[in-house]
Amino acid sequence: MANSKRTLFLKRRLRVRNKLRKVNVGRPRLSVYRSNKNLSVQLIDDVRGVTLASASTLEKDLGLVGKKNVEAAAKLGAVIAERARKAGVEEAYFDRGGYLYHGKVKALADAAREGGLKL
Fold first, then answer.
1. What is the DSSP-derived secondary structure letter of residue 27?
2. What is the pTM (predicted TM-score) of this model?
3. Which residues contact 100 (CB under 8 A, 6 or more apart)?
4. What is the pLDDT of residues 17-48, one digit of tens each?
5. Are 55 and 41 in contact (CB under 8 A)?
6. DSSP secondary structure, 4-17, as one string
């Protein structure tokens, strides 16, 4: 039986995450979630199991509600870099999940790097 799109996505997500965990011990993980309408990003400390900072296009004060374009992703990257700095985090590793490093995901990562977060 052929693999479904969802199964392939989950396999890709686990493959990416497991490779990153082997290499980046001790650094927090910048995890991206992309739905059909919104983007969400979290800075997660896997050792303690806590979220250090998060940002989403659903936050009304950012003015990005319902926007899912590359510009919204870039603004979200800048916001998460600022919040990470406030949380005392200067470097993290970028967990793209099962998403391709292209378009919105790439724009978010580039903006976080420009904001001072080492990925």
1. S
2. 0.86
3. none
4. 888 888 877 889 999 999 888 899 999 998 88
5. yes
6. PHHHHHHHHHHHHH
| 87 domain-assigned | yes
Pick from 19-33, 66-80, 102-116 the range whose average pLDDT is largest. 102-116
Distance of CA 62 to the CA centre of its chain: 17
How far apart (Å, rounded) are the C-alpha atoms in residues 63 and 42? 18
What φ, ψ does residue 38 adopt, rounded to 5°? -140, 165
What is the spatial distance between Cα 75 and Cα 45, in angstroms, rounded to a whole number? 23
Residue 110 counted as domain residue: yes
Count of domains for the chain: 1
C-alpha angle 4/9/14, rounded to 5°?
130
Please choose, from the candidates 1, 2, 77, the residue with its C-alpha nearest in 3D space to the C-alpha of residue 32: 77
CATH number for the domain including 36?
3.30.420.100
> Whole domain around residue 87: which residue ranges?
5-114
**Residue 119 within any structural domain of the chain:** no
pLDDT of residue 36: 87
Helix (H, G, I), strand (E, B) or coil at 43: strand
In terms of Cα–Cα distance, which of 93, 54, 90 is closest to 62? 54
